[in-house]
């Protein structure tokens, strides 16, 4: 199973053209495994998050026609509840992640929807070589 790339805390930014930087959003790191007939949102610990974040799955389903030429793919991203375009609320995503009642999850997804922020520096594309599954990392 592929695991998300995790950030490393440093106190001085490295230099050079081989480095990629991203904003650190406070949320849950998750992989989105997206195929034509299946969408899975998986935590960094391997737990399926589809039921806790139905709005993410619904958004993928709504975009399916546009995305079919690019499927299957695996995205690495952060599940967040945004306070602004640059700040996420870790407290709110934690509260959301603890919900188990379908009704409460549905209400929370409507009132304070989560966002899945794709980390643009890389995506995994499933490729098939000699009948074996392989993954290629693309850096964008």
Number of strands: 7
- Poorly predicted runs: 126-131, 136-140
For the largest beta sheet, what order do the strands appear in spatially?
2-1-3-6-7
Mean pLDDT: 83
Query: Terminal Cα separation, in Å?
Result: 22 Å
Order of helices and strands: EEHHEEEHHEE
Q: What percentage of residues falls in helices of 4 or more residues? A: 10-25%
Give the structural class: alpha+beta
Q: What is the alpha-carbon Rg in Å? A: 16 Å
Shape: globular
Task: Write a structural description.
It is a single chain. The protein is an alpha+beta fold. Helices cover 23% and strands 35% of the residues. The protein is built from four helices and seven strands; from the N terminus they run E-E-H-H-E-E-E-H-H-E-E. The chain has helices at 54-62, 64-67, 90-98, 102-111; strands at 28-35, 38-43, 73-80, 82-84, 87-88, 115-129, 132-138. It has a five-stranded antiparallel β-sheet with strand order 2-1-3-6-7. Strands 4-5 form a two-stranded antiparallel ribbon. The longest helix has 10 residues, at 102-111. It is globular, with a radius of gyration of 16 Å. Mean pLDDT is 83; it is low at 126-131 and 136-140.
